[in-house]
Design a protein that fits this description.
Largest sheet: 6 strands, mixed
CATH superfamily: Metallo-dependent phosphatases
CATH architecture: 4-Layer Sandwich
CATH topology: Purple Acid Phosphatase, chain A, domain 2
Number of domains: 1
CATH class: Alpha Beta
Shape: globular
Order of helices and strands: HEHEHEHHEEHEHEEEEE
Distance between the termini: 94 Å
Number of strands: 11
Number of helices: 7
Length: about 300
Amino acid sequence: MRPAPRRPAKTRSPVAVSVALVFACASLSFGADRLRFAVVADPQLGMVELERDTRNLASVAADIAALPEATRPRFVLVAGDLVNTAGDPEQLRRFQEAKAHFTVPVWVVPGNHDLTRDGRTLAPDLVDALRRDVAPDRFVRTESGCVFIGLDSQLWTLETTAREQLAWLESELRSAGKRPIFVLQHHPLYVESVDERDAYENTPSPWRARVLALLERWRVRAILTGHLHRNRSSRWRGLSFLTTPSPCKNFDGSAFGYRLIWVDADGSFSETYRGVPGTLPEPEKPSSRVPSPPLEP
């Protein structure tokens, strides 16, 4: 009797193998041994519609909470412009309401929409109110051997406040020593080049140069910012600059979402921007065209 033919061993398709490898690599790359955190920029509640903007920020919080444990961030940094109108009690109340949806600690710095009435000029009474009712306008936190320094970028617009903040920053950088350092502020230090002219979008040049010198000297890993409502990244002399889009309104077509960053033990990091499904698009504005009169029968 001839033996029955052996059935060929079942093999996985190249596509299935590739997918399995992707998930295996992701598990290794984003494992629990790495420090994980998220950056949200410019929630700016009230910029489009207060109810809709609040729901978008709450959707970001829900999306972070739903991430698998191996990739879920340990904390969230918010890079300013918490609300659209500085000092508005209802917008601030709604920000606190949306912030309560986060299941991890949230550390914030203010933006120009939080501390000015015209988008540019620092108002000391608004600084006092923010510190009293919302949060300190700058901070230092240490997590898993990394140091996180939050700056109030609006303070760079006045000589006295800028000088004081620069001295404070230098002291904190010195205290951090050789530990990996990440710096958070609202305004980018620069947009296109370090020697560009002063503009609404960047940090005033005299202080920009001094801050850059300090960050380079202490080998800061990344400067995390918002303000532009765009997704941008660049490098200068070993420094990484990451600008995160908004969950409210963007000018480059970016999805509403947040940035995820994973930090290795040696301070090197990887990052990605994640759009959040279910966030509400900007409502269409009614047409401004005057309708033509109906044709006579």
